[in-house]
Amino acid sequence: MNKALLVFRLKMSLAIIAILLLGAALTYGVMLWITNGSISGIALVTGLVLMAFFLTLFQWLIGPFLINAMYRAHEIKPDDPTYGWVYDLVADVARANGFKSAPRVYVADVPFPNAFAYGSPIAGKRVAITLPLLKILKPGELKAVLGHEIGHLRHRDVEVLMAIGLLPTVIYWLGWSLWWGGWWGGWSEGRNNNGGLLLLIGLVLLAVSFLFQLFVLYINRLREAYADINGALTVENGAHNLQRALAKITLYTDPSVVRKTTNGTLRMLFFAPPVNVNVEYIERNVDDLIEYWRHYKPSVWEELLMSHPHPARRIQLLDSLAESS
After folding, report:
1. Which pLDDT tens digit goes with each residue over 121-178?
2. Between the N and C ends of the chain, which has fewer C-beta atoms within 10 Å?
3. Are strands 73-76 and 115-120 parallel, antiparallel or unpaired?
4. CA 17, CA 24: separation in Å to the nearest integer?
5. Peptidase M48 domain spans which residues (predicted)?
6. Average pLDDT in the 65-94 region?
7. Fold of 71-154
8. What is the mean pLDDT of the chain?
9. What is the DSSP string of 267-287?
């Protein structure tokens, strides 16, 4: 196994273990301290965990059907006269990743370029590609993107992130419960010390839940980088084609990024309104944008609230994989 990949996996595993242990210790520790070791504190936290788990499980089970409705996605089959070739690409990448059968393939009728993997035990594994992405990417580039998305399925990222996401949810609910209990108890008992203490602890836990959400975003960035690695290593010329795909998506979403890079700054616009960008414009600027990202050093603050690594980090990671292969 590649040494850099082994180090990356170890870093990711330690981060996940650390956040799970720290979150569990914090929630149970706070309740045991407040209730002086009473069983009621453990019961409250356990109840919140179970409630968060079942709500998250319900969302996971029905999520794929909601996504299909929101994205106006329709399933394509191998014999589809228009998109059968897309199904074949997905099947090829799935086989390269050790899947016995291809995930279900969908084309989404939305006005922005994207691809994503999703699914649940009742919906099965799915991959969706939007129409603009099919318009701007060449088959090799699309195949590299599919290597990234199928990497999410291979690594069970939906399940991993769902489990980790329970922590900030439970901490938030616990903080809100204590804040509300302290506020109400303070009024009903003349704002005694106990009510004020619960109010303060609740506010602190609400703030801590936000910090844990930042940790979850960090884990998500690691999983996205891991999926990039998967796309680079399981698809022929995957690193190069994934770089081009990332730059093309950016140019489609925010064509003025070329002017911004020329001025020495880079501002990524996520969820920006789609613009009418022709393929020639994208092809003309894609290499310059990749070259800019190769030398750009994003700060910690630029990535802090991002669910994906900064594009510059992704380009540089893919460069290192291409050099080591």
Report:
1. 999 999 999 999 999 999 999 999 999 999 999 999 999 988 888 888 888 888 887 7
2. N
3. unpaired
4. 11
5. 84-320
6. 95
7. Zincin-like (3.30.2010)
8. 85
9. ---TTPPP----HHHHHHHHH
The annotation status of 189 as a binding-site residue, yes or no, is no
Q: At what angle do helices 279-295 and 238-253 cross, to 10 degrees?
A: 110
For the record, the structure tokens of 262 come out as 């020329």
Q: Give whole-number Cα distances, 46 to 27, 141, 170, in Å.
A: 10, 46, 9
Is 283 an annotated catalytic residue?
no
Environment class of 126 (CB within 10 Å of its CB; exposed 0-12, middle 13-18, buried 19+): buried
Q: What pLDDT digit, counting tens, does each position of 188-245 carry?
A: 444 445 667 777 888 888 888 898 899 999 999 999 999 999 999 999 999 999 999 9
Residue tagged active-site, from 75, 149, 236, 302: 149
Binding site annotation covers 152?
A: yes
Domain ranges within the chain, ordered by starting residue: 3-67+157-227, 71-154, 237-324
User: CA 218, CA 226: separation in Å to the nearest integer?
Assistant: 12
β-sheet bridge partners, residue 76: 105
For 3, list phi and psi in degrees, rounded to 5. -60, -40
Residue recorded with tokens 């899947």: 99
Range 283-295 average pLDDT? 93
pTM for the model stands at: 0.85
Structure tokens at 256: 């003025």
Could you give the count of Cα atoms lying within 13 Å of 126 in the half-sphere of its Cβ? 23
What is the Cα gyration radius of the chain? 23
Q: Which two tokens stand for residue 72?
A: 């106006």
CA distance 238 to 140: 8
- 186: its two tokens: 């303070």
**240 annotated among ligand-binding-site residues:** no
Coil, strand or helix at 301 = helix
CA distance 281 to 266: 18
